[in-house]
Amino acid sequence: MKNVTDSFVSLGRWPSAGSFGLNTDILATNPINLSVVLGVLIFFGKGVLSDLLDNRKNRILNTIRNSEELRGGAVEFLEKARARLRKMEIEADQFRVNGYSEIEREKLNLINSTSNILEQLENYKNETIYFEQQRAINQVRLRVFQQALQGALGTLNSCLTNELHLRTISANIGMFGAMKEITD
Questions:
Q1: Is residue 22 helix, strand or coil?
Q2: Quick one: DSSP state of residue 13?
Q3: Using CA of residue 136, residue 137, residue 140, residue 142, what is the dihedral sign?
Q4: Greatest mean pLDDT range, 17-26, 33-42, 96-105, 152-161
Q5: How many CB atoms lie within 10 A of CB 108?
Q6: CB–CB of 21/9 below 8 Å?
Q7: Is the pLDDT of residue 7 over 50?
Q8: 71-82 confidence digits (pLDDT tens)
Q9: In whole angstroms, what separates CA 44 from the centre of its chain?
């Protein structure tokens, strides 16, 4: 390795031989070499670099435009979703209010129908009681009438003789004859 470094160091000591020579002084040759390299790069790479930068700029602008369009669509979608949400909340409130009023209405209808049914049942009960009372009264009347008739027949049979019986029949026949003459 020492031979390689010695050969470079020895190059730095060559005297210049005319107009062309190798200057090994790094501080003096570096800015010149860099400016030449940069000049060549700028001259030849200017078009390529500007094309790359323009392409990059166009891609960034397209990305920004697409992002703006997507953002606009997202904002529009969000507004529509919010509007639908408000509409659904209003409908839910209406259903809730209507549901409560419907429940109250059904409750009142049920109370009224139950009251009507109870009133009808009370009327049926009263009619049944009245009917049963009338039937009981009629049965009592029938029994009283039967007993009175049996008593009257018993009294008549014991008091009625054949002669009295014949006179009663004759009187009744006479009354029927008189009634027939009046109606004719």
A1: coil
A2: T
A3: negative
A4: 96-105
A5: 10
A6: no
A7: no
A8: 999 999 999 999
A9: 72
The amino acid that residue 97 corresponds to is V
161: left (phi over 0), alpha (psi -120 to 50) or beta: beta
Token pair belonging to 121: 């049942």
> What CA–CA distance (Å, rounded) separates 35 from 28?
12
Name the DSSP letter for residue 21.
-
Distance between CA atoms of residues 142 and 136, nearest Å: 10
pTM score of the predicted model: 0.37
DSSP 12: T
Largest CA distance in the chain: 203
The answer to whether 23 and 29 have CB atoms below 8 angstroms apart is: yes
Q: How far apart are CA 155 and CA 136, in angstroms?
A: 28
**3-class SS at 25?**
coil
Residue 7: both structure tokens together: 């050969």
